[in-house]
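This part of the workshop introduces the protein records we will be handling. To make this concrete, we reproduce a full record directly below:
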Amino acid sequence: MNQLSILGCGWLGLPLAKKLIEKGNSVNGSTTSESKLSILKDTGINPFLVVLESESVSQTITDFLADSEILIIDIPPKLRGNNAETSHSTRKVFVEKIENLIPFIAKSTIKKVLFVTSTSVYGDQNDLITEETNPNPETESGKQLLLAEAILQENQNFETTILRFGGLIGEDRHPVKFLAGKENLENPDAPINLIHQKDCINIIEEIINQSKWNEVFNAVAPFHPSRSAYYTQKAKEQNLILPKFSTEKSNIKKIISSEKIENVLKYQFTLGEY
């Protein structure tokens, strides 16, 4: 049995915690909403109200980390735009949150950190992307995630594994719902790079079970039909208005490779969910 702390029990963190508990682990889980504490408790999580700011961290952070050896960080940057559009203070806020968190991790019993991040750190490169590809983020969130990755990896008080997810989908979350009925959508021939919530949870479990630390993993299902073919089919399946793609818009040919996940973890994706 492991004692774990999950910072961010939201769309992914909550079902992840539930599965880890079902497997006999003890989980401390955090939320920023007091109304969600009861939801965490009902799931079997030891609930904590933890608010991470750029200048401070909730005093509950010490108890939240106490007695855990593994910390899973799953909090989104919640940033939009690029450097030219974003003020200096906003640009720095997510990185500063991680910087403020690190001293508490270093003083705790935490020895392993799993940082859930995103393939957005690679930007829109026309290439096959592996873990050896140099990141080149274009969005503000991608830039801050990359900086936060480096800060965690450089700390010698704990071992950090970086897990970069592609586009997240699940039973209650699918981008086709936002694309349905829209016109002049860009990049019709661009391959999709998605990962289902079930695969996200299973991969995190495998990293923990196999003790794969000080690693970087890209996690995207090895399923890459074109955007136009995939989203048109999904719209038909869900009886939604078909999206219309523009053939005049530029096409990005980026494919995120899942080869390392499959080879190192011996992981098989649940392709039936896509």
Summary: The chain has a mean pLDDT of 93. Residues 54 and 89 are 9 Å apart (CA to CA). The two ends are 32 Å apart (CA to CA).
